[in-house]
Amino acid sequence: MDMLAEFLKHFHIDALQPPQQLFCAAARAFSRIPYENITKIIRRAEAGSDEKARRGPDEVIADHIRWGAGGTCFSLTSALCQMARRMGFEAEYLLADRSYGQNTHSALFVRIDGKPYLFDPGFLITEPVPLALADPLEIVSGGERLKLIPGKTGISLFTERGGKSVYRLTYKTTPVDAGEFRKAWDDSFHWEMMRYPLLARAGASGRIYLRGSMFQVSGKDSVNRVKIPENELAAKISGEFGIHPAVVARALILLKEGT
């Protein structure tokens, strides 16, 4: 059974749906796959090089089914892109800039009924957003309010809470080739985020997020934060994000060793 068939079976998605409905159902299922750098930390330590450390689509899906694992934006985008192509859609990579650097995030361009749309499994945008966005668009994704604002350099993403907007990133609306995408992916192995656990997923009461030892739940209008004691961190990650305890323990050991 190939990667796409296993994914559809695992998430109980009817493979006989019309292609557009099938892809959108598959994209929505990605909100149940955690954004996490746990597997990225392990793979980089074991592979010995950035190129070998990239986890391909088949591995990402197999690791999720087997261990509850996920990936960061590049591996998740790569997996969703491969699914879209296998379903017959034109799909390309997009890059995005954050305040701390260019090409520090990725997303997906998919053409549906002749029109280009944005999907971002890393930021839990799993419903199609028009890339030819003319006016600001507000959506709820992963339990959070998001605002997308078109501009000269792309589409800027803000989170909205309590009447305040916080800038997150700007999507470039022109697709990049596989080489540019892989370069940004390889660069990501050397970012600060590889020095601590970083995870997010959609939860019942909002977006669940952990950075280092700080755990938070962000709803539409509120955010609650709590610091997790070091001796409870592995159990918290495994319990909240559904990743196998042995995988979490391995990554935390590598981080402690400074690998």
Describe this structure in words.
- This protein is α+β, with helices and mostly antiparallel strands.
- It has one domain: Arylamine N-acetyltransferase fold, CATH 3.30.2140.
- The chain is built from nine helices and 13 strands.
- The strands form two sheets. The chain has an eight-stranded antiparallel sheet with strand order 5-4-3-2-9-8-7-6. Strands 1-10-11-12-13 form a five-stranded antiparallel sheet.
- A hairpin with a 2-residue loop joins strand 3 and strand 4.
- The longest helix is centred in the N-terminal third of the chain and has 14 residues, at about 75-85.
- It is globular and about 50 Å long.
- The N and C termini lie far apart (about 35 Å).
CATH class: Alpha Beta
Mean pLDDT: 93
Order of helices and strands: HHEHHHHEEEEEEEEHEEEEHH
Strand order of the largest sheet: 5-4-3-2-9-8-7-6
Overall spatial form: globular
Strand content: 25-35%
Second rung of CATH, namely the architecture: 2-Layer Sandwich
Contiguous uncertain segments of 5+ residues = none
Class from secondary-structure proportions = alpha+beta
Features:
single chain, 259 residues, alpha+beta, Arylamine N-acetyltransferase fold, eight-stranded antiparallel β-sheet, 9 helices, 33% strand, globular
Structure described in brief:
35% of the residues lie in helices and 33% in strands.
List the helices and strands and how they pair.
Layout: H1 3-10, H2 19-29, E1 35-36, H3 38-47, H4 50-53, H5 57-67, H6 73-86, E2 90-98, E3 101-112, E4 115-120, E5 125-130, E6 137-141, E7 144-151, E8 154-161, E9 164-171, H7 178-188, E10 198-203, E11 206-211, E12 214-218, E13 223-227, H8 233-241, H9 245-257
Antiparallel strand pairs: 1-10, 2-3, 2-9, 3-4, 4-5, 6-7, 7-8, 8-9, 10-11, 11-12, 12-13
Helix pairs in contact: 1-5, 3-9, 5-6, 8-9
